[in-house]
Amino acid sequence: MNKRFFILLILFGIPSLTYSQTSDPARSQVLGDEQARHSEDWVRSGIIYEINTRSFSPEGTFAGIEKGLPGLKRLGVTILWIMPIHPVGVLNRKGPLGSQYSVQDYYGINPEFGTLDDFKSLVAAAHKLGFHLIIDLVANHTAWDSKLIKQHPEWFTKDSAGKIVPPNPDWTDVADLDYSQPGLRTYMTDMMKYWVRDIGVDGFRCDVAEMVPTDFWESARAALDSIKPIMMLAEGTYPKHHLKAFDASYGWNTHGLLGPLISGKISVLSLDTVLNTERRCFPRGSLRMRFSSNHDENAWDAPDVVKYGVSGAKLAAVLVNTLPGIPLLYNGQEVGSPTRLKLFEKIPIDWKDGEEFRELYTTLFDLRKKEPALTEGAMARIPSSETKRVYAFTRIAGASRLLVAFNAGASEFTGTLDLSSVVPVSGSSITLTDIFTKQATTSAVPSSKEIPVKIPATGFRVFRIE
C-alpha cells in the first residue's frame, strides 16, 4: 500500500508512524540496548527479489514466474517475495483489475495468476533451485466483498453509527479489521500456519505491519516457529517489532535520503545522522531492508532510473547493497526499466535491454555471497578530502575487507581517503582491487595515511582491501 511519511522519518530515521491504528506506549521507545530476535543465516545473508506477478512475465501468471526462475538464479537473488496471491475484491475496486492488496479470500488463489496447484508448482520449483519464497500478507484489512466481511462482520472496525470503515479515507477499496476480536486473531494465525505448513512458503512480507497490534505478530510468530524456520518482513519502521516478531523492517530512513543525496540537495553527512539514529533506536542486530525502489515507489512515484537518472540509479544500487542490512530488488530494476508498473493494471516489463544494470546487480550480489564483510561486518566511516559530497566507509569481518566510496557531486572527485583506521602503520603497502573493473593498485601507505582516489560524478568505487 502507498505510504506518506513524516519528514523526520525520511531525513533522520526517527521511528514515527503516519498511520496508527492502535495505541502502544512502547512505540516511541529507544531500544538500542536490547537484542533483536535471532534470524536464520539464509535471512541474514539474503538478497530479496520482489515479484509483481502481473508484470513479471508476458503471461502474468505463476507459471510465468516459474519459467523465469533460472534467470533469477543466475542473477544471484536468494529470497523471492511474491506480491499478494489471493483473489482481489470487486466491490469498490480501484482500476480495471483492482489492487492485489484488496484481499477477498485469504485461503484462495487469484484466478488471474493460476490455480493452487500452479502455485504449489512454483514453490516446489523455487525450493529445488535453492530459493526461499515468502508471500505478501495483508492482515490489516480485506476487500469489501471478502469472505470474512460476509461471515464475520463483527471482526471489522466500525464508526459510531455501527458502519464498517476503511483504514483511512484514501483506501476506499478495503475495510479495516479489528484486532480486539479474539476470533479474528485465531483465524489469521491459523491461516498463516496453513500457508507455511501445508503449502510450504517460507514466511511473509507483512503489509502495513505497524497498523496491526504488535502482540498479535508476536503470538503468530511463535506459532509459525513451531512449524519451521521462516522469515517475517515488516512493512514499517517500528523498533519493537524486531524483539520477538520480525526479522527485518523497511529501511525507509535510508531510502528517503537517496533522492536528496544524489541530487546534491543535502550533504552526504546526513547519512551519518540517519544511521546513528537507527543504531540508537533499533535493537542490536536488527536487520533493515535497504531499497531504492519497490512496488509502491515504482507505481506512485517513478522507477529509480527515472527518479535518479541512470548514474544515480546505479549509485543507489551500490548503497542498497553495501550498507548494513538486506538488499531488495524490485522486478525490472535489473534491466533499468523506466516503466511504471501501475498496481491496478497489467503493465508488462520490457526485458530486452539493460545489460549494464544486469551486470551491476550480478556483480553486487556475487560480492555479497563471497564477502562476509557485507553480511557480518561492522561499518566504519572513512574521512575524505571533500566531506560534503564524498562519503566513504569500510565493511570488515576478519580477512574480508571492503572499501566503499561514492561521490554525490556533479563533477569528478580527485582527492584522498584517510585510511588510518584500515592501515595503522605507515610505510606498509596496501592493495585496492576494484570489484567492477578487477584492476588492482598497490601503493605504499604515506605517513598521512591518505590514499589518492578518483570517483566519477554521481559515481562510486568499491574496493577489496588487501
Overall geometry: globular
CATH topology of the largest domain: TIM Barrel
Low-confidence stretches: 2-26
Q: Superfamily at the CATH H level of the largest domain?
A: Glycosidases
Total strands: 18
Name of the CATH architecture of the largest domain: Alpha-Beta Barrel
Mean pLDDT: 93
Percent strand equals 15-25%
Q: Over all CA atoms, what is the radius of gyration?
A: 23 Å
Task: Describe the strand arrangement of the main beta sheet, using strand numbers.
Answer: 1-2-3-6-7-8-9-10
* Secondary-structure content class: alpha/beta
Helix content: 25-40%
Plain-language structure description:
The protein has 466 residues and is α/β, with parallel strands linked by helices. The protein folds into 2 domains: 17-370, Glycosidases (TIM Barrel, Alpha-Beta Barrel); 378-465, Golgi alpha-mannosidase II (Immunoglobulin-like, Sandwich). The protein has 16 helices and 18 strands.
Considering the chains and any ligands shown, give keywords for the structure.
466 residues, alpha/beta, Immunoglobulin-like, 2 domains, 8-stranded parallel beta barrel, 18 strands, disordered N terminus
Compact description:
By secondary structure, the chain is of the alpha/beta class. Helices cover 32% and strands 20% of the residues. The N terminus is likely disordered.
Explain the layout of strands and helices:
Elements: H1 7-12, H2 41-44, E1 48-51, H3 53-56, H4 62-75, E2 79-82, H5 116-128, E3 132-137, E4 141-143, H6 147-151, E5 174-176, H7 182-199, E6 203-206, H8 214-225, E7 231-234, H9 241-244, E8 248-250, H10 252-262, H11 270-281, E9 287-290, H12 295-301, H13 304-307, H14 309-322, E10 326-330, H15 355-370, H16 373-376, E11 378-382, E12 390-397, E13 400-407, E14 413-418, E15 429-434, E16 440-444, E17 450-455, E18 459-465
Parallel strand pairs: 1-2, 1-10, 2-3, 3-6, 6-7, 7-8, 8-9, 9-10
Antiparallel strand pairs: 4-5, 11-12, 12-13, 13-18, 14-17, 15-16, 15-18
Helix pairs in contact: 4-5, 7-8, 10-11, 14-15
